Amino acid sequence: DAKTTQPTSMDCAEGRAANLPCNHSTISGNEYVYWYRQIHSQGPQYIIHGLKNNETNEMASLIITEDRKSSTLILPHATLRDTAVYYCIAEWGGSEKLVFGKGTKLTVNP
Amino acid sequence: NAGVMQNPRHLVRRRGQEARLRCSPMKGHSHVYWYRQLPEEGLKFMVYLQKENIIDESGMPKERFSAEFPKEGPSILRIQQVVRGDSAAYFCASSPETGANEKLFFGSGTQLSVL
Questions:
Q1: In chain B, how long is the greatest CA-to-CA distance?
Q2: CA–CA distance, A56 with A64 (Å, rounded to integer)
């Protein structure tokens, strides 16, 4: 599994965009980038994933650099309910499990 | 479509007792994963099962822990002779198929407290 590095914590003002970075400089060609989040005392929740192209869904956007060594998760209009730990995971196709690191604790402030 | 159901939500056991944690995957999902989260730590993979088969148990402690996913009924994570260090949140996830292109759906977890 490719190692990912994320900042330990970040703050964001309510209503502003939250941009969460992730470095995965050793990622290989068949490894996807996944983002999950875990709100306090709840199970993790899938957000988005991608391989090479940028992706967008109803929750967030994922921007992957051309060399694929880093990515950014964007929550376009953060709300207080987005306060959570966000996990960036690099995983190869066909893998049986996801390996969670320590993630980024995002705090959205009023 | 109900999500992944775990029960009980909270479980209290005394040292030496057995703990049984249940997980019903989402309808149509045949792959189940168990993760453990110790206080103030990240999630650690424990075991991956398909119906009636253990596929990967590389994260399971060598003793006292076992898991099953029978043909009928929920997946069970069993911890025998619990110790205080087993106190943690145990999360179950399911997916319809394996592979990195399949996202995992997690339950709300079982919080195990060992007195």
A1: 41
A2: 12
Pairing type for strands A31-38 and A84-92 reads antiparallel
| Closest chain A residue to B111, measured at CA | A41
Rounded to an integer, what distance in angstroms lies between the CA atom of residue B21 and that of residue B39? 18
For residues A76 and A17, the answer to whether their CB atoms sit within 8 Å is: yes
Give every CB contact of residue A55 below 8 A, 6+ residues apart in sequence.
A48, A49, A61, A62
Provide the residue type at B43 as one letter.
L
Name the residue of chain B whose CA is nearest to A104's CA. Answer: B42
For the segment A5-46, what is each residue's pLDDT rounded down to a tens digit?
999 999 999 999 999 999 999 898 888 999 999 998 899 999
User: What is the Cα–Cα distance from B104 to B95, expressed in whole angstroms?
Assistant: 5
pLDDT tens-digit readout, B65-92: 999 999 889 999 999 999 999 999 999 9
DSSP state letter for A96: S
Interface of B with A (CB under 8 A): 4, 33, 35, 41-45, 48, 55-56, 89, 91, 93, 98-101, 103-109
